[in-house]
Amino acid sequence: MLDRLKTVRHRLLSTGEGRLLIAAVTTLLIGTIFYARVEGWSLIDSLYFCVITLTTVGYGDLHPTRDISKLFTITYIIAGLGLLAALVNLIGERRTASARRKAEQFAESKRTSQEEETTLS
Asked: Using CB atoms within 10 A of its CB, is residue 50 exposed (0-12), middle (13-18) or buried (19+)?
């Protein structure tokens, strides 16, 4: 089990995508812990606020009430916004590439079947 965790850790740290994922998760974790402790929010509310803030959705149902939280939020947005945007972009690019590959495979299989039908006719 420990070897498996080491392998996963090595894979994550050896790629830019893995390091980006670790940085994004760490940023969300830091924000979650901060807001839970300073604002007294539950962990779920704190994580929710972090995700809503860094994705720029900002519903406004939760907001910092203390000056230290407001200052932290300013820094948190500046530091975390680009990081989370890069992660969302990476996920989008991978999904698009996967869909494109599947469409190409489908088109190729359809072309092959049409050629076989033409040959048999």
From this structure: buried
Tokens of 43: 């962990």
- What are the angstrom distances between the C-alpha of 22 and each of 28, 79, 85, 104? 10, 15, 14, 32
The residues spanned by each domain of the chain are 2-120
pLDDT digit string (tens) for the chain, length 121 residues: 778 877 877 777 777 888 888 999 999 999 999 999 999 999 999 999 999 999 989 898 999 999 999 999 999 999 999 998 898 898 899 889 888 998 888 888 888 777 777 776 6
pTM score, whole prediction: 0.73
Is 1.10.287.70 the CATH classification of the domain at 2-120? yes
Residue showing tokens 């469409």 = 103
